[in-house]
Amino acid sequence: MLKQILAKLPRKSSKCDSFDTSGSNSCNNTTNSGNGIPFTNSCTVIATRLNVVKRMSTAIFPTSIVAGGDSVPPHVPFKDVSNAEKQSLFISKLNLCCSIYDFNDPDKDSAEKDLKRQVLLELNDFVASGSARFTESAIAAVCKMCAVNLFRTFPPKSYLSARGESEDEEPMFDPAWCHLQLVYDLFLSIISQSSLDAKVAKKHVDHSFILKLLNLFDSEDPRERECLKSILHRLYGKFMMHRPYIRKAVSNIFYRFAFETERHNGIAELLEVFGSVISGFALPLKEEHRLFFSRALIPLHKPKSLGVYHQQLAYCVVQFIEKEQNLASVAITRLLRYWPVTSSQKQLMFISELEELLEMISVAEFEKIMVPLFRRIGYCLNSSHFQVAERAHFLWNNDNVLNLVMRNRQVIMPIIVSALERNSQNHWNKAVLNLTQNVRKVFSEMDEELVLDCQGKLEEENSKSNVAAERRRLTWERLEIAANYQPVTMPSNISGLVKPATCLVSC
């Protein structure tokens, strides 16, 4: 068999460039026969050709593949192997960490759990040292290990769908976090390495991998969501080819949350990541980004749990309007459509966001929405919930709002003055009454003649409404008197009933 293999190999050229195990040139072992033909030692030829076979097999089947990635035992420390074997040991340790254990029982498999944790710590140190080489086989092993440990279906639990009203509720913590944290740290460290080639890694960090990673944002453990936030930010920056897919997948999460379930634990973290993503959008904005603003971001104001993520949501909206100011009127119009009539806490958040948007809106865009906007503000001024009424009165402390009102006082003052007059007469809270007097004073200083004119028209309207109310009262009194009138009882016989009808007809 060996002779057949050697016969098929190409003949060695006269110029020898290979060295034997002792370091001497193999050509030095040649001697001349008696007829002058050079004679080569047969053992040297066989050794040389076997080395050629070995090099060819190594080139076709790398050591990590031939040995199944486990040519070096995983329990050996990195410091005890040569640099050539560290890559194989790296993959071997990753394969060892694919074992899953039950952490609900702390006494079960404790030795195996400790061993896995030590290996994960060693892997993190190895990657942090910069000694790891991220070949395709290494990236595949990393993605496999992360998928086995991280990708899981969360058990059905009571979602914190109203966490905005019950912020004191304790979060849920995963008992396996001691291992999950190390896996997250390892993956984050790897994708943060400058030596990682995104074109090679994208074969394994593909759309399916990213989608499963995004699904983990629904975890009830806030520590896990924090790690995922950092990883998603790195992935978006590293894998430019996956950016459109990431935006689409996150949009779908927002759609499902806002229009279907209203149950998701990671909306705040996703919005925090997208706050920095939106700030990097180029101008002019693409149609895709405008649709994301109007169809995905703005409807997030609807769910009851708005208080959990409102700060991050408002920041994203502001980032969009800083890019294009004409989106401010779109945002305010949609906010008025989603106005929470029965939730005072959400009303406070909406008023704060409106004030922030009014600081950025242009005069032309403001004129498009000022009438419905200040009608809603007028309702808030008259709110029986004193915090809502106070927050609406504080709008006039903003110089930008005052400037917009000053430019359009002919339209806005009649709406607001009537609300202030109703407050001064009917509101129960003393602090709100004091704020009402302060706003009336500001308006009088702005345009006293217009304020007096508005008050005169309001008194005229009130007098007319009083006259109409008096007429309605008198009408109802006459109807009540007529209803209480008892007519004369008619005869019970049929003939007596028919005769008056005949007489009426003849008449």
Can you put this structure into words, describing what you see?
By secondary structure, the protein is mainly α. It is built from 22 helices and two strands. It has helices at residues 2-8, 42-60, 63-66, 83-96, 110-128, 136-150, 177-191, 198-201, 207-215, 222-238, 243-261, 267-279, 287-297, 306-323, 327-337, 344-358, 363-381, 386-393, 399-407, 409-426, 430-484, 494-506; strands at 31-32, 38-39. It has a two-stranded antiparallel sheet. Helix 9 (207-215) runs parallel beside helix 11 (243-261) and helix 12 (267-279) runs parallel beside helix 14 (306-323). It is elongated, with a radius of gyration of 40 Å. It starts with a helix and ends with a helix.
Estimate the helix proportion, in percent: 55-70%
Could you tell me the number of beta strands?
2
Net shape: elongated
Number of helices: 22
Low-confidence runs: 12-70, 158-167, 501-507
Mean pLDDT: 83
Summing up helix and strand content along with how strands pair, one would put the structural category as mainly alpha
Order of helices and strands: HEEHHHHHHHHHHHHHHHHHHHHH
Largest sheet: 2 strands, antiparallel
The gyration radius over C-alpha positions equals 40 Å
Strand order of the largest sheet: 1-2
Question: How much strand?
Answer: under 5%
Cα separation of the termini: 137 Å
Layout of strands and helices, then pairs:
Layout: H1 2-8, E1 31-32, E2 38-39, H2 42-60, H3 63-66, H4 83-96, H5 110-128, H6 136-150, H7 177-191, H8 198-201, H9 207-215, H10 222-238, H11 243-261, H12 267-279, H13 287-297, H14 306-323, H15 327-337, H16 344-358, H17 363-381, H18 386-393, H19 399-407, H20 409-426, H21 430-484, H22 494-506
Antiparallel strand pairs: 1-2
Helix pairs in contact: 4-5, 4-6, 5-7, 6-7, 7-10, 9-11, 10-12, 11-13, 12-14, 14-16, 15-16, 15-17, 16-18, 17-18, 17-20, 18-21, 19-20, 20-21
Family: Belongs to the phosphatase 2A regulatory subunit.
GO biological process, one term: signal transduction
Function: The B regulatory subunit might modulate substrate selectivity and catalytic activity, and also might direct the localization of the catalytic enzyme to a particular subcellular compartment.
